[in-house]
Each structure stands twice: as structure tokens, then as C-alpha cells.
């Protein structure tokens, strides 16, 4: 979708550049995931550390933290720079809950990543890949069911 938006000059506002909190460094293999938070209770399939997709996310976070440290960045700054660095992305929706979180995110707004860092990130999570299928989001039936993508026969016959 991003290449199409770029081709036609359409703005893209990326949602959740910190992947629902996974890219804050708060959820780690060593500390686990706090399943008492409201978000984890509402969406356990996206946070439960016993599920294979979330185990993969915890491992990816550890690898991404190493890359951020090697480049002298915080994980949040690297994640935000990754998202807004794409040429098709106009902006990103951030969701700080505290003034400290906002201050941190704003401090990383001008960070850019070089190709070597981007390549290392792509080795951990290849472009277009979702580690946990539950993170792919809701798919409307109109896209999932072939019959729902077709116009009614009466409409097609009239046009």
C-alpha cells in the first residue's frame, strides 16, 4: 500500500509506531509482559507471552534493543525513526500517556537511520512480515470473502 500512496502523492499517517508498547523496551524476555494492564487484558492474544507469536516478538525486541544500543539510540527513538523515515509516511500517530513519554518521543523526532541500521532491522523483521498473526488487525469481510468483493449481478447488468 505504501508504494501506491507514494506514487499518487497520498499522505500516510502511520498508526502505533511503538507497536502497542512492544517497542518501548518495557516488555522483555527477562521481565516478561505485564498481563494486568488494561491493554493486555482486552487483547490477550496480542500480549500473552506464552503464545508463539508473542514469544517471537519478545525475541525481536531483544535483537532490536541491541541494534538501538549499537547506534546510540533508545528503542523508542529508533522505532519512531524507522516508521517516519519511510518516504511514503507523512506522519505517525504517537500515544504517550505521560509527559515523560511525550518528551522522549519528541526528542527522537529528528532521528534518521542509515541504510545499515535499516538492513539490520529488516533481518529481524522482514518488510511486510507480522510476527504475531493477531497483530495483523481486523480484516473486513468485504476483503476476506470473494463474494463480498463483487457487486450484485443486478448492478453489473445495469451498468
Number of extended strands: 2
Morphology call:
globular
The arrangement of helices and strands along the chain is HEHHHHEHHHH
Strand order in space, largest sheet = 1-2
Provide the low-confidence segments as ranges.
none
Strand content: under 5%
- Helix/sheet category: mainly alpha
- Average pLDDT confidence is 89
Q: Helical stretch count?
A: 9
Radius of gyration (Å): 19 Å
Termini distance? Answer: 29 Å
Give the proportion of residues in helices: 40-55%
Would you kindly provide a written description of the structure presented here, covering whatever features stand out?
The chain has nine helices and two strands. It has a two-stranded parallel sheet. The chain has helices spanning about 1-5, 40, 45, 50-70, 75-85, 100-105, 115-125, 140-145, 155-159; strands at about 15, 90-95. The protein is about 45% helix and about 5% strand. The mean pLDDT is about 90. The protein is globular. Helix 4 (about 50-70) packs antiparallel against helix 7 (about 115-125). With about 160 residues, the chain is mainly alpha-helical.
Amino acid at each position: 500500500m505504501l508504494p501506491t500512496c507514494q506514487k499518487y502523492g497520498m499522505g500516510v499517517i502511520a498508526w502505533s509506531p511503538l507497536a502497542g508498547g512492544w517497542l518501548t523496551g518495557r516488555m522483555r524476555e527477562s521481565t516478561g509482559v505485564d498481563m494486568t494492564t488494561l491493554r493486555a487484558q482486552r487483547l490477550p492474544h496480542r500480549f500473552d507471552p506464552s503464545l508463539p507469536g508473542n514469544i517471537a516478538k519478545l525475541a525481536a525486541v531483544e535483537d532490536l534493543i541491541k541494534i538501538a544500543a549499537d547506534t546510540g539510540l533508545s528503542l523508542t527513538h529508533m522505532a519512531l525513526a524507522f516508521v517516519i523515515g519511510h518516504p511514503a509516511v507523512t506522519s505517525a500517530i504517537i500515544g504517550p500517556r505521560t509527559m515523560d513519554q511525550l518528551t522522549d518521543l519528541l526528542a527522537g523526532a529528528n532521528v534518521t537511520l542509515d541504510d545499515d541500521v535499516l538492513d539490520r532491522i529488516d533481518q529481524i523483521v522482514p518488510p511486510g512480515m507480522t510476527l504475531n498473526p493477531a497483530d495483523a488487525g481486523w480484516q473486513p469481510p468485504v476483503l476476506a470473502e470473494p463474494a463480498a468483493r463483487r457487486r450484485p449481478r443486478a448492478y453489473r447488468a445495469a451498468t
